[in-house]
Design brief:
This protein has 7 helices and 7 strands. By secondary structure, it is α/β, with parallel strands linked by helices. It has one domain: archaeoglobus fulgidus dsm 4304 fold (2-Layer Sandwich), CATH 3.30.2170. The longest helix is centred in the C-terminal third of the chain and has 20 residues.
């Protein structure tokens, strides 16, 4: 992958009933060249719209891929990858780092009625996770808008020596720093 290719990584940090979302534009060369911030409700259903808003406000046509830190930020405020892909008009990848039986058992434990039904409908629309190894590190990737081979190439290109893809690492640091700034104001 060319060193100038850019990806937007989106990660979260939460405090109280609101979660800070941070987006970091990072080149395959590891240079960071943009940030965008927003919020979504902890335990709510507004995360997909919040990510769409980040993309609209960022307004960067040079960003070729969107990488998301998981699909359930802010305590099961599920991200709808196909809906984000439609808005973004570029491939969307969700990356996680732990093996799990999936979210359905946890959703059933935490919610009931319409709240559960809404979350299950969103969750069931998501593509399957595929296991990926990068420099002896295990990751799980869901991809919309590209095939499994391209998704693997993207994650590998943006992941220095294993660990986390750089756009997600930088976005997580930015989200935490923004939370610290908000806490300092309170």
């Amino acid at each position: 992958m060319k060193v100038g290719v850019r990806a937007l990584g989106i990660a979260e940090s939460f405090r109280g009933d609101e979660s800070t979302l941070a987006g970091a534009v990072v080149r395959a060369s590891r240079a960071t060249d943009g940030f965008v911030f927003g919020t979504c409700t902890v335990g709510g259903t507004d995360a997909t719209d919040a990510v769409r808003s980040l993309l609209d406000r960022l307004d960067r046509e040079d960003v070729r891929y969107v990488l998301l830190a998981g699909i359930a930020p802010a305590w099961f405020n599920l991200l709808d990858l196909p809906a984000i892909r439609e808005s973004a008009d570029r491939p969307v990848l969700s990356v996680t780092f732990e093996e799990s039986p999936g979210l359905e058992p946890a959703l059933r434990e935490a919610f009931e009625g319409d709240a559960l039904d809404e979350r299950l409908a969103v969750y069931r629309r998501q593509p399957e996770r595929r296991r990926l190894t990068v420099a002896d590190e295990r990751m799980f990737v869901r991809a919309v808008g590209c095939d499994g081979s391209e998704a693997a190439d993207v994650v590998r290109a943006f992941t220095p020596e294993g660990g986390r893809p750089e756009p997600l690492r930088v976005a997580r640091l930015a989200a935490r720093a923004a939370d610290d700034a908000f806490l300092a104001e309170d």
